[in-house]
Automatic annotation (TrEMBL):
Keywords: Cytoplasm, NAD, Oxidoreductase. This is L-carnitine dehydrogenase. It comes from the Bacteria. NAD(+) binds at G7, G8, G9, V10, I11, G12. GO terms for cellular component: cytoplasm. Residues 179-244 form the 3-hydroxyacyl-CoA dehydrogenase C-terminal domain. It is found in: Cytoplasm. One of its GO terms (biological process) is fatty acid metabolic process. Belongs to the 3-hydroxyacyl-CoA dehydrogenase family. L-carnitine dehydrogenase subfamily. It comes from Paracoccus kondratievae. Homodimer. One of its GO terms (molecular function) is carnitine 3-dehydrogenase activity.
């Protein structure tokens, strides 16, 4: 499938990164003189975030083709994402250029925050294929995309968006600003009033969100959160108690303060004081690291966005064998997240086991011991582990694991992983004994022929001598006699 991106700014850059990292080639047109630098920087941050987010090996990235015109970019495209500035006249001009050059079967998704499909389609030759596909920033991490404009084209677009790990939400009826921005604007307007009236600073408002209800929203949204807030009597009780307050003069929702120079100076000044000591790219990396941490927590709980990440990862694992060329096997990479670092300033000890455990999972999938296999009530349990910590690892480093199979019989196999830093030096090694088990009965059972043959194939490649430390335990330390 061929993708074209028209506009590569904040949002277009995020789309480009998501498609590229998902393995699709993207033709890009953006007349900005520094477009290539800007997009490369966004892609670098996105790559860093995906390496920290996913434990599965990432797909081979797609390639960018820098086009000299809209026509060149869209000529062979199956899906076109338009992300030019939010002006209807400009969007109409771009859509007309796309229609002149793109195949008639190509879908056109617009990132517009506010325009309705009926507005975008004015004057179009094939209007039904033009849709709103409105994402949220950062597009390469946040999965949700509002798809507005119905029919077969929307269904096809949803399939494409799902294939790049997004969660399309189809909106039944078009309205200005769709759904997400309606909600966000209500909060934003109110926040502008609070600053305008001198009631709160930008930092105080952000603190109330990030130390409070913002944390709830990441995992349960509004209605499920309020259901719980109704106590055991649930949503009905909540509405009965707090519904009437909506008619009290709490908010100024419909008015907008005049964004005159004084208010702009106040907001921009407070924002500089709050965050001006970080560059935008640094702030993006801080935001991304935090989002990745939240995604990991939700994945561990099999909840919300964590389920999206897991589904995406399953897809990566399914495509992984193509990447496992050569021996020792390279099935797993991990980017050291900021939260993995301890008070000594380096990756903390249990994260080594996490990287090794994830590499073991990748090996299990490689030999066919995957989710489908486990659903039959069989799995592998690790019963012994020996880790050697050999070098300090800092936040941001990319770790690659090399895996060897040191032995196997009908019920057991012994793995050796070496965690390598980017310069090829060993940061750690791990040796692990795994048993094949019947998970319903909780006992060891022989492996079926398919797994044994897969292990035989790996073992046939393991011709080098075993590492000297294989099979060794922790060195003994002579106990000194206590001195009085
Ligand atoms: N920034 C945000 O938070 C979000 C923005 N959006 C929507 O995404 C769209 C783009 O917004 P941003 O990325 O924020 O704007 P931006 O200003 O960061 O990027 C727009 C890009 O379009 C390029 N451009 C201008 N004229 C062009 C043309 N004729 N052909 C191709 N490229 C052209 C510019 O050089 C620039 O790189 C808008 O429709 C906006 O409503 C959607 C979600 C969030
Ligand atoms: C400010 N905005 C309307 C462009 C924001 C969006 O459209 C979505 C987002 O990412 O918040």
């Amino acid at each position: 499938m061929k993708i074209a991106a028209i506009g590569g700014g904040v949002i277009g850059g995020g789309w480009i990164a998501r498609f590229i990292l998902s393995g699709y080639d993207v033709a890009v047109y953006d007349p900005h003189p520094e477009a290539q630098r800007i997009i490369a920087e966004v892609l670098a941050n996105a790559t860093r975030a995906w390496e920290a987010l996913f434990q599965a090996p990432l797909p081979r990235p797609g390639r960018i083709h820098w086009a000299g015109s809209v026509a060149e970019a869209v000529r062979e495209a199956d899906y076109i994402q338009e992300s030019v500035p939010e002006r209807l006249d400009l969007k109409h001009r771009i859509i007309a250029e796309i229609e002149d050059a793109a195949p008639e079967t190509a879908l056109i998704g617009s990132s517009t925050s506010g325009f309705k499909p009926s507005e975008l389609r004015q004057g179009a030759r094939l209007p039904d294929r033009i849709l709103v596909a409105h994402p949220f920033n950062p597009v390469y991490l946040l999965p949700v995309v509002e798809v507005v404009g119905g029919g077969e084209a929307a269904a096809r677009a949803c399939d494409i968006l799902t294939a790049i790990g997004m969660k399309p939400v189809r909106i039944a009826r078009e309205i200005d600003a769709h759904i997400g921005d309606r909600l966000l604007e209500a909060v934003w307007r109110e926040a502008l009033w609070l600053v305008n009236d001198g009631i709160a600073t930008t930092e105080e408002i952000d603190d109330i969100i990030r130390f409070g209800f913002g944390l709830r929203w990441a995992q349960m949204g509004l209605f499920e959160t309020y259901r719980i807030a109704g106590g055991e009597a649930g949503m009905r009780h909540f509405l009965g108690q707090f519904g009437p307050a909506l008619k009290w003069p709490w908010t100024k929702l419909m008015d907008v303060p005049d964004l005159d120079d004084a208010l702009i100076d106040r907001i921009a000044g407070q924002s500089d004081a709050q965050s001006g000591h970080h560059s935008i790219r640094e702030l993006e990396r801080i935001r991304d690291d935090n989002l990745v941490g939240i995604f990991h927590a939700l994945k561990a709980n099999d909840w919300g966005v964590g389920q999206t990440v897991r589904a995406q990862e399953d897809g990566f694992y399914a495509r992984a064998p193509a990447r496992a060329e050569g021996y020792p096997l390279r099935l797993h990479q991990a980017r050291v997240a900021g939260g993995w670092v301890d008070y000594n300033g380096h990756m903390t000890e249990f994260r080594y086991l996490q990287v090794l455990g994830d590499a073991t999972d990748a090996f299990l999938i490689h030999i066919g011991l995957d989710a489908e296999y486990r659903a039959q009530g069989r799995s592998a349990y690790t019963v012994e582990t020996h880790i050697r910590h050999l070098a300090e690892v800092k936040a941001g480093e990319l770790l690659t694991v090399e895996t060897r199979l040191l032995g196997h019989d009908a019920k057991r196999f012994r793995l050796h992983h070496a965690i390598l830093r980017e310069d090829g030096t060993e940061a750690a090694t791990g040796e692990h004994m795994l048993l094949h088990v019947d998970t319903d009965e909780g006992r060891t059972i022989p492996m079926p022929l398919t797994l044994l043959e897969a292990l035989d194939r790996v073992a046939a490649q393991d011709t080098a001598p075993h590492p000297d430390h294989a099979g060794a335990g922790i060195r003994s330390v002579r106990q000194k006699e206590a001195t009085a």
